[in-house]
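quick one, 272 residues, struct below
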Amino acid sequence: MATPKGAENKSETAEAEGADKPENAPQPVQMDEVLVEIGGANTIPEFTEYLSGAKAGEERSFDVSYPEDFYDKRLAGQTFSYKVKVNALKKKTLPELNDDFAKELSQDFQTIDDLKQRIRENMELQQKHKAEHEGKDKLIEELIAKHDFPVPRALVEHQIDLRLERGLRALAAQGMKTEEMRRMDFGRLRGGQREAAVKEVKSSVLLARIAEKEKIAVSDEELESEIASMAQQMQQPVEEVKKRLMQDNAVERLRDRMRSEKALNLLYANAD
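---
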């Protein structure tokens, strides 16, 4: 199989099966019918290098070293040994970008220019949100630097618990099994979360003080609207989400979080 050169709308892919974990793993991980795009922009370079030119039925073995900043933290900084069998070769053909293509995507688009305009607007909105997020992070850093103070250990430990819970849910959503999670070094994981947890606790305390000083409040209507938005994102009934929040005594925590967000928005709006 050869990686296509100069092709604008076609790329070759291989279906691969069988990937071994690192040498220190107790058992290899078996995976079937994995689709690998050869030469794709988001493809790990080693897959393109070692699978290029392979034919259906051919087997190949190779190592892949993942960078420290790899998006999947389970693989980041590790080297995995892969044993791959190519089941089949497929060719991806992209559709022609014209008015018909735009109409097939959505009734909102009548021409390809309508689609391009929507993409442009979404990209601009994403850039705006990114700049705002980075700006608020910088404000928090400066706020903590100017008003540093010790925080109760119990609050930090609770925040670490929350961060680990979110992380484990994300790993479960990505397909990690409970047995694999149990083998994780939670002592090391907790240590790695401590610095960020301390920062979050300090920022929460400072923003609560600012909200109090500026007499910022969250109305019941705003709280109900936020719960409705959460229910929509989770694709669950509003009353079910509200009931679960009440059972977990999380309604007031949600109100406090919204109050802190209001305080941060006020700081950001008045920042130079």
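Residues 112-146 form the longest helix (35 residues).
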